[in-house]
Amino acid sequence: MFNRFFDTLKAKGIDVTLSEWLTLQEALDKGLCESSLTKFYYVARMILVKSETDFDKYDLAFEECFKGIRSDDEITARMLRWLDKPEMNELLHETDKQYLNQTEVGHIDKDDVEKKFKQRMKDQDSEHNGGSYWIGTMGKTSFGNTGGNIGGIRVGGSTGYQSAFQVVGARRFRDFRDDRMLDNRQFQLAFRKLRQFSSKLDIPKTELDIDATVDKTCNNGGCLQIVMDKPRKNTVKLLLLMDSGGTMIPYCKLLNELFQAVHKSNHYKDVKAYYFHNCIYSHVYKTPECDNGDWIETEWLFRNLDKDYKVLIVGDAAMAPEELFAKDGNYRGPNGGYSGYEWLVRLKGKYKKIAWLNPKMAVGKAPWREAETAIKELFPMHPLTVEGLHAAMAVLMGKN
Question: Is the pTM of this model over 0.90?
Answer without folding.
Answer: no
